[in-house]
Amino acid sequence: MGRPKLERSGDGEGQEMSQVVAEDSQLATPPSPEPQAESPTKWVVFRSKDKELTLFQKAGFTDKSHGIATYTPSTGIKFDDCYLKLEDISENAKTINWVRTHPSFGVSFIEVPDLSNIVKLPPIAQLKQMTGSELKELCLKNSVAVKEEYSKESIILALVEKG
Description:
Elements: E1 4-8, E2 14-19, E3 43-48, E4 54-58, E5 61-63, E6 70-72, E7 75-78, E8 83-87, H1 93-100, E9 109-112, H2 124-129, H3 132-141, H4 152-162
Antiparallel strand pairs: 1-2, 3-8, 3-9, 4-7, 5-6
Helix pairs in contact: 3-4
């Protein structure tokens, strides 16, 4: 079905609406695809003892061998407020591996788990007030496997252990 077309006369009086129908079925717009749920972004997180630690991969230098001084800047990674977060994607794999094998790893900084995608559970007192079906819905959101015959206490325990 096309858009309705409103024809007007020069007097400003509106006439009846007429339907403009597409003659070719190819002109019809295809249904829009449903939006896909985004998976949470995975991060590799490192924590430093120092607030502003910088790891240099290659030191900067000035080349004067050709009569013209050219400066090549240093390449490295700077921790921001004790943390370095790198997205866990294939483009960052070489950098992540370099940081993990750095001689200061385990001395000046360590790798810590990514807590940005953790869903906070309500307090245990509130969990106890929830119905069994509400607890099972919460288990589905947090990817906790529970069986149908589990009691409320067992479901709460499974949620707390996983979360």
